[in-house]
Specification:
five-stranded mixed β-sheet; 4 helices; elongated; Nuclear Transport Factor 2, Chain: A; alpha+beta; 5 strands; 34% helix
Length: 142
């Protein structure tokens, strides 16, 4: 694919990440396709993905993201990033039953996106859930 397609795909994912980390709810309507497919666990569709980020913001407060590496090739983009926040609630499915610690935590992700017509059309993810749970004293399970 052309360098223009690659650069446009890179910009869309970078803008989405920046806006979501800033708490901008319009990022989903502006940058995620209406028929979005989430191949990762969790709620499906654009509104389901929005709900996932709502839980994340609720449980980890005003989190920040650090992008370690972004690779783009045509309409596909891969991102390695870390989310940092404070554990202030346990409402997302992974954290249900975990006592609130107030601890500063880091959660590492690998994301893969496919862009179509200027929007994120598909998403895959690999998360270091065990690493997050260890920081909260919830791993290994008792």
């Amino acid at each position: 694919m052309s360098d223009q397609v690659t650069e446009a795909s890179r910009r869309i994912v970078t803008e989405f990440s920046r806006r979501v980390a800033a708490g901008d709810p319009s990022a989903f309507d502006d940058l995620v396709a209406q028929d979005f497919v989430n191949h990762a666990a969790g709620p499906q569709g654009r509104n389901g993905w929005r709900a996932t980020f709502d839980h994340l913001r609720h449980d980890l407060g005003d989190f920040t993201t650090e992008e370690h590496r972004l690779l783009a090739d045509g309409d596909e983009v891969a991102v390695h990033l870390t989310i940092r926040g404070r554990h202030v609630a346990s409402t997302m499915p992974l954290l249900i039953g975990v006592p609130i610690t107030g601890a500063e935590v880091e959660w590492t992700f690998l994301h893969r996106f496919r862009i179509k017509d200027g929007r994120i059309a598909e998403h895959w993810a690999c998360r270091d859930d065990v690493g997050l749970l260890r920081q909260l004293g919830a791993w290994p399970p008792t």
